[in-house]
Amino acid sequence: MSLDKSEVQKIAWLAKLAIDDQDISTYSNELSNILGLVETMNSVDTNGISPIAHPLDLTARLRPDQVTETNHRDQFQKNAPLIDDGCYLVPKVIE
Amino acid sequence: MHLSTLAQLSTALESKQISSEELTRLYLDRCNQFNDSLNCFITINKDIALAQAKSADKQRAAGNALALTGIPIAQKDIFCTKGIKTSCGSKMLDNFIAPYDATVIEKMNLAGMVNIGKTNMDEFAMGSSNETSFYGPVRNPWDKDTVPGGSSGGSASAVAARLSPAATGTDTGGSIRQPASLCGITGLKPTYGRVSRYGMIAFASSLDQGGPMTQTAEDAALMMNVIAGFDERDSTSAEHPVDDYTANLNESIEGLKIGLPKEYFGAGLDSNIAKIVEDGIKELEKLGAVCKEIELPNTQLSIPAYYVVAPAECSSNLSRFDGVRFGYRCEDPKDLSDLYCRSRGEGFGKEVKRRIMIGAYVLSAGYYDAYYLKAQQIRHLIRDDFQNAFKNVDVIAGPTATGTAFKLNEKINDPISMYLSDIYTVSVNLAGLPAISVPAGFSNKLPVGMQLIGNYFEESRLLNIAHRFQQATDHHKAIPGGFE
Asked: Sorting pLDDT into bands at 50, 70 and 90, what band is B89?
C-alpha cells in the first residue's frame, strides 16, 4: 500500500497533527514503507483464527459503584496551559 | 562501593559500613560527573534524594529497614513521580510535573528506596536507540559513539556506568531487554500484568510492562519483590499469587529443558553473537540443562503484527495530549482545531508522529479488518506458537538482539531497519510472556545479551536460571573503561 500526499494529509487531519507541507513527501515515503512491511502479514492465511486483543484471557473486573477518588482539581490545573476560575480555556468555539 | 550490587549495598547498609546519605551522595556525585558525557538523566533529584536518604537512615536506626531501604535507584522518566518533572522524553511533557506517584514509585518509596533521578528514554518509549528523545541521545558507556539501545536507554546506560546501582525500565517491544543487552546489564520484562501500569505513561496498553534493570539476576529478584503484585488501580493487573523472587535463586537447574527456536539462530543474526549465545547455552548445559531445537514458525510475522498493534494503541493513548489540560500548547492558536493540530504537531517528535499516523490509518474506516483484525489474528498464532513450545520445554533461550550497540545516527533515518532489529523481543510482548536478558559475552568489545523466555508468571524460574548462569560466569561483572 502506498500512500499519496493527499492520503497523508487526510491521516494527519484524522490524527490532529499539523504537518509542514515540505515534510509530506517524506512522510508519504516512510509511511508507505512501514505499511509495506506490515503487509507481509498477508503471507499467512488467518481464516477461522479468532483475533485476540490481549495476551491473557482477561475479563474486566467489576467494583462496587462507590466514589473512591477525591477532588484534586486545583492540583491538576497547575499543569494546565491556561485556566480561569477552575475552567480550562481554549479559543472561542461559538461566535 | 559504586561497583556494588543491590544485594551487597543492602548488606553494607545493614552492617553500618555506610549510611544511605553517604551512598546517595556518592551516586549523585557520579551522576554529576558523568551525565554530561552520557546524557542518561533528564532530571537529577538531588534535594529529594537526600531527604529520602536521611529518612531511610532514620528508618534503619529505628530498626524498621527492609531489604532495599536506603538504596538509590534511577527511575525511567515514563513513571509519574509526584512533584517531579515527568517528561516521557517528549517536548509535549517538558513542563509536566506529575501530580501523583505511579504504583511502582509508590512501592519503592514505601520500601525506603531513594529516587536519585529520572532517566532519559526514547520519546514516549518509541524507539530502539534512545535517539528519538527530545533531550538528545544517550550514549553507551562501552563506546560513546554507539547507542545504548532503547527505549529504556538512559536506565541501561546509567546502570552499566554505575551511576545508579539499578533502575526501572518499561518494555513494550523489547525496551528493557534490548538496551540491557547492548549495555551489558540484566533486564527482566515480567509477565503482562505482573507489575502495575498505574502512573506509567501509556504507549501500547496491551503490551506495556515495567520491570527491573540491574547488574545481576539476584538484584532483579530483590526489585521484583518490591514492585510486583496486584493493583486495583490498573484494570489489567494480574490477580495471581506473587512469588518471593529470591527464594529459588540457588535451586539446581539439573534436568531443565531449554528450547532453542531455529528461527532465532537463522539469517539476520550476527555470527559472533550466535557463537556467544551458543556458548552461553553450553554453560547452562554444564549446569545440567538439556537443550532441544524447537519451532516458533510465526516469528517473522511478529514484526508486522507489532507495527499494527502498537501504533494503533499508541494513536489512541496519545490522543489525550491535546494542549488543553496539561502538556505543551502552541503559541497563538487561531481556533480550537489549530490549537489541537499545532500543539500536537509541534509537541511530538518525528517517530511519535509516524506511529500515530500509522495507528490512525490502520484503525480508519475501511482498513480495520485488513490491518488491525489481521494483526490480532496473528497475535493469536504467535501466542499459540509459544504455548505449543512450552508443552515440550521449560524455557526458551536465544539472542536478545540481532547485533551489538550500533553507531549513533546509523539507523535513525531508516525506521524499517530499526524495527526489524526487534525481531527476537516483540513476539514476547505480543504473547505477554516474561523474559530476561543477561550478559553473555562481548563481540568486538561490545556486550551481548542472551535472552531467556518463560511461560506466564514464571519469573522466579527465569531469575533462578539467570542467577545460576551468573554464578558460573563473569560477563555481568565487566565494567566499561573509565567508570571503574
From this structure: very high
Q: Could you tell me the pTM of the whole model?
A: 0.97
Its ipTM equals 0.95
pLDDT, position B365: 87
Q: Taking CA atoms, what residue in A is nearest to B380?
A: A52
Q: Write the CB contacts of A91 (distance below 8 Å, at least 6 apart in sequence).
A: B333, B334, B335, B336, B338, B339
**Would the CB atoms of B329 and A82 count as touching at under 8 Å?**
yes
Decide if A35 and B358 are in contact by the 8 Å CB cutoff: yes
Above pLDDT 90, what percent of chain B?
A: 97
Count up the domains in chain B and report the number. Answer: 1
Q: List CB contacts (< 8 A) between A35 and chain B.
A: 358, 361
Paired strand residues for B225: none
In 3D space, the residue among B195, B192, B196 whose CA is nearest the CA of residue B234 turns out to be B196
User: What integer pLDDT is reported at residue A1 of this predicted model?
Assistant: 67
**How close, in Å, is residue A32 to chain B by CA atoms?**
9
Q: What is the mean pLDDT of residues B458-468?
A: 98
CA proximity to B123, closest of B178, B42, B43, B59: B42
Q: Tell me how far apart the alpha carbons of residues B236 and B258 are, in angstroms, rounded to a whole number.
A: 30
State whether B324 and A50 contact (CB < 8 Å).
Answer: no
Instruction: Please say if B151 is a catalytic residue.
Output: yes
Report residue A81 as a C-alpha cell.
Answer: 496551559
Length of chain B as a residue count: 484
Full residue range of the structural domain in which residue B289 is found = 1-484
